Amino acid sequence: MFFPATATTSNAQCFKENTAFQSGEKLNFFVYYNMAFIWVDAGKAYFNVDKTTLNGRAAYFFDSYGMSLPMHDWFFKVREHYQTYLDSATLSPIKCERKAIEGSYWVNEFYYFDHEKGKIYSTIENSKQKKKTDSLKLNPCIFDVLTAIYYCRNLDFSKCKINDKIPISMVIDNKEYALYVRYRGKEIMETRDDTKYRCIKFSALLVAGTIFRGGEELTVWVTDDENKIPILIQADILVGSIKVYLSGAEGLKYRLSSKIKY
């Protein structure tokens, strides 16, 4: 997953207001893999948003799942499932869970964000270590992977200059990282069905691991409208590269005014 970095935690931005998504939003994606100039269908993913309650508090429930297609599992099997609860009043993460398989590596992670005590309680087990419980200091404006993605969709790029960095803090693998996204400007992008959109472009760093080499090799194009939904995500990986295209969207908060009509 994305990001470790050079920005400082003290400069991280808080999730002040949700202007981009609503309950009932569903986004679907196709994943394509390239090696030796050949692009092949490699996988699919979805991101869903629902409203719920947790411990008597109104919350957003984020549910995301990504997988390699079964025909490619022999080469490198991927199953990534994230579930997160976000307090809909404070827009702070409450708890999140990740269950993943990446080739021969597997991991189960759970985080609970106790804002009253200022602690993040974690339980982690994977193919390299036994189950371990721990706690971290809960600094203001810290996110898990899913809430960070929805936070980025709420960023206001209108006052950014090209190459400006926007800091963000995230908990990954039981560690807090000071992160950033870099504004790259605006472009017109085309989906696999030849639909064109006006887009905002930004990049982020990658954590080196079982899939990614690390470095600022992730680029994202989101619609240049209030929804800011991803149209294309592109990244280099250990062998080859991937492109993730939007294949379907429903339950959006606003109409797609960024769509170019002919």
Report on the structure:
The chain is mainly beta and 262 residues long. It has one domain. It is built from 2 helices and 15 strands. It has helices at residues 73-76, 145-153, and strands spanning 26-35, 38-54, 57-68, 78-87, 93-102, 105-114, 119-126, 129-137, 142-143, 165-172, 175-190, 196-206, 215-223, 230-236, 241-250. It has a 15-stranded mixed beta sheet with strand order 8-7-6-5-4-3-2-1-15-14-13-12-11-10-9. It starts with 25 loop residues before the first strand and ends in a 12-residue tail after the last strand. The model is unreliable at 1-11 (pLDDT under 50).
Helix count, DSSP H or I runs of 4 or more residues:
2
User: How is the quaternary structure best described?
Assistant: single chain
Let me know the largest β-sheet.
Answer: 15 strands, mixed
**Taking Cα atoms only, what radius of gyration do you get, to the nearest Å?**
18 Å
Backbone shape: globular
Total strand segments:
15
Strand order of the largest sheet: 8-7-6-5-4-3-2-1-15-14-13-12-11-10-9
In short:
By secondary structure, this protein is mostly beta strands. Helix content is 5%, strand content 57%.
Protein traits:
262 residues, mainly beta, 57% strand
